[in-house]
Amino acid sequence: DRKLAFMIHRKYPKAAEGLKLRADRYNRQVELAKEYEAQGRLLIVAPDNTCGMDTLTQDTEAMKQFYQKGLHDGEQIASFVS
Predict the structure, then answer these.
(1) Under DSSP, is residue 40 helix (H, G, I), strand (E, B) or coil?
(2) What distances in angstroms separate CA 71 from CA 17, 47, 64, 67, 76, one per listed residue?
(3) Where is the DUF6363 domain (predicted)?
(4) 38-82: pLDDT as tens digits
């Protein structure tokens, strides 16, 4: 983000500034969400790990394993909302 911000700064200074701050804002929001989750105020629905997969994986066995993990982890949603 910072490299892109530097490249566009002259023509789009406000956009460049926004790019510089984006990661910091995101990280603050994630920390706040984790605090709320610890307090029981919300449930973060996201995988706790990627089981070694990357975005372009074609390993169907890894995808099946990740899917099963998602089903298992999804059971937390029902207990959270009830």
Answers:
(1) coil
(2) 40, 11, 11, 6, 10
(3) 12-76
(4) 999 999 988 888 878 888 889 999 899 999 998 988 888 888 887
